[in-house]
Design a protein that fits this description.
Blueprint lengths: L6 H11 L4 E5 L2 E5 H17 L7 E5 L4 H13 L2 E5 L5 H11 L1 E6 L1 H4 L12 E4 L5 E4 L2 H8 L1 H8 L19 E6 L9 E5 H15 L8 E4 L6 H14 L2 E4 L6 H11 L4 E3 L1 H11 L1 H4 L2 H6 L5 H16 L7 E3 L6 H9 L4 E3 L1 E2 L6 E4 L12 E2 L3 E6 L8 E7 L5 E2 L3 H7 E2 L2 E10 L5 E6 L4 E2 L5 E2 L1 H8 L5 E9 L2 E8 L1 H7 L3 H16 L8 E6 L23
Parallel strand pairs: 1-11, 3-4, 3-5, 5-6, 10-11, 12-13, 13-14, 27-28
Antiparallel strand pairs: 1-2, 6-7, 8-9, 9-20, 15-16, 16-17, 18-19, 19-22, 21-22, 22-23, 24-25, 26-27
């Protein structure tokens, strides 16, 4: 297998080579050049050293996306400490639990999140540091307080001359050394601490460099909208771009279509990385009403004229997203078949990848020009994937993976580690088929698979994909009660309001949806009923529904 290089050495060289180039920004404010990043990293290193932090110690980070979050993360790695990113959307009790479970010595946190935390619930912490300005929010160690109080003086002593690229020297990591413990957001269970070694961080960066570096160059810009505490956003909206000399703009507000489209128009990113929900919202609001119009649908069938209309729609969507991107990479969950069919029909430059936190995250990808619709690409470099099935082309089986991207295991959880890493393979829990060209087509999660009355395998995600295209359906989950299958639906509140519908009207529409859906699917998959939900489904930060919360929903 290919030997991993030192990731921290890559960071060191990138900072030196791009010293005066812009690196990180909080969209609309706080612009940092690479030299600014290096200076703050050095100051954090001084605080670490003076307060007794050693290589291998865990440092927790909990905050919304921001430049200072990114700088603090790199400060941990380049010192030799283990970074423990915590999703800011976790409840305070979960944050306390992760800080304690990871044995973190310090916690870097947003001041707003800190207000909801209870210091006494994290007794092993030496201190809590504010991400915004590195002020000390809690100190249980005089050395930490003293280091922060005299930080500028200590920095001046260490660098009596002007701080320059020649002063940047970072901890040299080894491939199997632990870099990150990333706690999963979990659609099927509670969080587990995924142990990610440097080889996996390096390999994911190397993958992105191989497939994207000719399209995204130093000085280009990107808009980072996914949570940095999740490996998808961290790897492909932050780490790769920083190492490429690309200017990363963190979207600090929730990516609603209006805010997102405004920022994309302004920044004109060279690459867009997104979860399906974001793209689906934009396509359903701006594109579907046009192409589904009976008159337009008829014109699309006319040779030449149809192609002209498709090109106009494609160009309009591209311009709305900034107009300069090479492709839109969609991952984190399944893309709606209806939306994908439209994107493919208009020739839009999109692709769908496949990953998992346990692989930091990439497992499969294919460039948009060769991407096969409904697939999620081919095995990524340095990764081997196989389908655990007697007939992998036709009969779904679990995706098994091995290679440089795979985690070391779950932190302090040998039972789950043994379940997931078996016989040299990572058992993903995802069910798929793989064609002769190694394109992977995911059918669903093995934990989600339902068993029909006569032993048939039922993949709820496939039913949900069809249900989501029907009138008033904003979100849906398919569950099983005994031998019967039911749909849970959260109706589109804007449409309900626009049409002036009562609760009874909505139920009537859903019953018609059920009847229509049942004409499109096999008898053993048909819905016995639809329950209308009064609020959105609870989701993970990558906007996947937490299915396990609804499996026992009363009908």
């Amino acid at each position: 297998m290919e030997q991993a290089e030192s990731f921290n050495l890559i960071l060191e060289n990138v900072i030196k080579e791009n010293w005066n180039r812009y690196s990180l920004s909080d969209y609309g404010e706080n612009n940092f050049q690479y030299k600014d990043v290096a200076r703050i990293i050095e100051k954090i290193h001084i605080v670490f050293k003076e307060s007794g932090i050693k290589s291998g110690d865990k440092i927790a980070l909990c905050g919304k996306n921001s430049s200072r979050w990114g700088i603090s993360f790199f400060a941990c790695l380049t010192y030799g400490a283990v970074a423990v990113p915590i999703l800011h959307e976790f409840h305070p009790e979960q944050i306390h639990q992760i800080v304690n479970h990871s044995e973190s010595k310090l916690l870097f946190v947003d001041d707003k999140i800190y207000k909801n935390l209870t210091e006494q619930e994290m007794p092993a912490l030496s201190g809590i540091v504010c991400l915004k300005d590195l002020s000390i929010l809690l100190s249980r160690d005089k050395k930490l307080s003293n280091a922060r109080e005299h930080l500028n003086e200590l920095f001046g002593k260490k660098f009596p001359e002007r701080f320059s690229p020649e002063d940047v020297h970072y901890y040299k990591d080894s491939p199997e050394e632990l870099a990150v413990i990333n706690y999963t957001s979990g659609t099927t269970s509670n969080s587990k601490g995924v142990m990610i070694p440097y080889r996996a961080v390096w390999s994911n960066r190397e993958f992105a460099k191989d497939v994207l570096s000719k399209h995204l160059k130093a000085g280009d810009q990107i808009l980072a909208m996914l949570p940095m505490a999740h490996m998808y956003g961290m790897a492909f909206e932050f780490i790769f771009e920083f190492c490429q000399g690309v200017h990363v703009n963190f979207l600090t507000k929730a990516p609603t279509p209006q805010i997102l489209l405004s920022a994309l128009k302004d920044i004109k990113p060279g690459l867009i990385v997104a979860v399906p929900l974001i793209i689906e919202k934009i396509v359903r609001k701006a594109i579907l009403p046009k192409v589904k119009d009976p008159k337009v649908a008829l014109l699309l069938k006319v040779p030449v004229l149809g192609d002209m209309i498709r090109e106009k729609v494609r160009k309009g969507l591209s311009e709305a997203l900034g107009g300069r991107f090479y492709e839109v990479i969609i991952g984190g969950a399944a893309l709606s078949q209806e939306v994908e069919e439209v994107l493919h029909d208009i020739g839009f430059n999109y692709t769908v990848g496949y990953g998992a936190t346990e692989c930091a995250p990439i497992l499969a990808y294919r460039d948009w020009e060769t991407y096969v619709p409904r697939s999620c690409g081919q095995p990524a470099p340095r990764m081997e994937l196989k389908i655990d099935s007697p007939d992998p082309v036709n009969v779904p089986g679990e995706i098994l993976a091995r290679g440089m991207n795979v985690m070391q295991g779950y932190y302090k959880n040998p039972e789950e580690t043994e379940k997931t890493l078996r016989d040299g393979w990572y058992h993903t829990g995802d069910l798929a088929v793989m064609d002769a060209d190694n394109n992977i087509f995911i059918k669903g999660r093995s934990k989600n698979m339902l068993l029909g009355a006569n032993g048939q395998n039922i993949y709820p995600e496939e039913i949900e994909d069809k249900l989501s295209t029907l009138p008033l359906v904003a979100e849906c989950v398919v569950i099983q009660k005994g031998e019967k299958i039911y749909g849970l639906v959260y109706p589109d509140p804007d449409k309900v309001k626009e049409l002036g519908l009562s609760a009874d009207n909505v139920k009537d529409v859903m019953d018609e949806n059920r009847k229509l859906l049942n004409t499109q699917i096999p008898a053993y998959e048909q819905l016995a009923g639809i329950k209308v939900m009064d609020k959105e489904f609870e989701k993970t930060p990558k906007k996947s529904i937490k299915r396990y919360l609804y499996t026992n929903e009363e009908i």
